[in-house]
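Subject: for your reference before the review

Hello V.,

The reviewers asked for a structural picture of the protein, and I figured it would be easier to keep everything in one thread rather than splitting it across files. Below is the amino acid sequence we used in the manuscript, unchanged from the supplementary table.
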Amino acid sequence: MAKALVSSATPGQGGHGQGRPDSLPQRDINQNALVYADRQREHQRERARERYQHDPAYAQYQRSRQSTYQTARYQRDSVYAERQRARKRERQRARYRNDPAYAERQRERQREYRQRQRERYQNDPVYAERQRERQREYRQRQRERYHNDPAYAEHMREYQRERQRARRETNQRVNQLQSVETVNPIATRVLNTNQTNESTN
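And here is what came back from the structure prediction:
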């Protein structure tokens, strides 16, 4: 297209060949060529989107190509792989928070998985020994990280303090209920009856 514009803009090409493209600068020619190329690419993308929506075979072919490309890049590029894993985890967390049916399904899958693991642990001595060895190695790595990483150590201490605080609050509530029922069971029954009547009213 740029050559055609130059030829059309050049006056008097015949004879001695002294004509020059003075009427149309080279910068405008390049700009027009870029605009035309962008318009063609957008047209091709639009046609591809329409074909993807209306041609199942073409859509399947494009998905397989994309999957092959992503798999190869996932294996070759560790930064890309970590970014993809982080995006997947974030999508799953968002869906877990916003979709009660999905969250319940995931909890059910977790319960079934733990049940299968317990059964295998009890019935397969080799598997049980391998799991115990993995647990020992994991605890060893955690201890080394705790000693060598001050930020991780502070995080774990804060986590332990939070768990202890929650446990103390739970125990205090349980002890208060038990003490009230032990000291004055009649008052407890009357209080429960009054609460029931108030809720009924």
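For the response letter, the relevant points are probably these. Helices lie at 2-9, 26-54, 56-76, 78-98, 100-123, 125-148, 150-183, 185-200. The two ends are 85 Å apart (CA to CA).

Happy to draft the paragraph if you're swamped.

O.
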